[in-house]
């Protein structure tokens, strides 16, 4: 006799409210103590360590705290998340952003692509374009496009940062400054409420500033977690961007600033 089908009951509103209340309390605990272990949080909220791990992963993906080995802590203003973690964090959202941005880049043009996992997502979506000239200081972008396309690719010289394939230094800036390019695709590690674009590494910032100065149009690509992160080095201003591609509407103060400076907003939804 066949076994009856198992019906999975979706969580009701009360359950979802309880999850969000716990996660908000976790964020409050981290802000108060700076760092809290998984075991301490599991004991505090009387749940399993697996539940806390899921909570921390979700909160990290939302940019509300940083997920570290063994617990959660405050987002750092001096050190970015490991590249391997950034590649998988909000990967679906980055793919949608990349697909939407790529649709706004025509074939037969020149493109700067800088460092970061979201610019890399744009590069992957450009592989179906024709006759692009790509200038980059991102080794991952150069290798992937060289393997999959016939594009003209210029790799900026400089020193390779082993952990993520970034190429940096004065030679990098000197190379980038030789080109005047149709579209620049740049990422950022944080966006402040006053429109400042922020990052962690001064050498990375100098390369991006060179790209900004040499592009006819600039596309900023960044997921919603960047709205809550506050690295300490300023790259530039949101007002320098032509179009901002993201996965959620920005906070009201950033939206108002964009409108004031004529910065276009493109939000990638689940259909992109």
UniProtKB/TrEMBL annotation:
InterPro entries assigned: Carb_Metab_HTH_regulators (IPR050313), DeoR-like_C (IPR014036), DeoR_HTH (IPR001034), NagB/RpiA_transferase-like (IPR037171), Tscrpt_reg_HTH_DeoR_CS (IPR018356), WH-like_DNA-bd_sf (IPR036388), WH_DNA-bd_sf (IPR036390)
Name this protein carries in UniProt: DeoR family transcriptional regulator
- PANTHER family, A to Z: GLYCEROL-3-PHOSPHATE REGULON REPRESSOR, HTH-TYPE TRANSCRIPTIONAL REGULATOR SRLR-RELATED
Gene3D superfamilies associated with the record:
3.40.50.1360, Winged helix-like DNA-binding domain superfamily/Winged helix DNA-binding domain
Q: A GO molecular function for this record?
A: DNA binding
- Report if keyword Nucleotidyltransferase is assigned: no
Q: Which organism is it from?
A: Methylobacterium soli
Boundaries of each HTH deoR-type domain copy? 19-74
Lineage of this protein's species?
Bacteria, Pseudomonadati, Pseudomonadota, Alphaproteobacteria, Hyphomicrobiales
Keywords, comma-separated and alphabetical = DNA-binding, Repressor, Transcription, Transcription regulation
Lineage, top-rank taxon, reads Bacteria
User: Which Pfam families does this one have?
Assistant: DeoRC (PF00455), HTH_DeoR (PF08220)
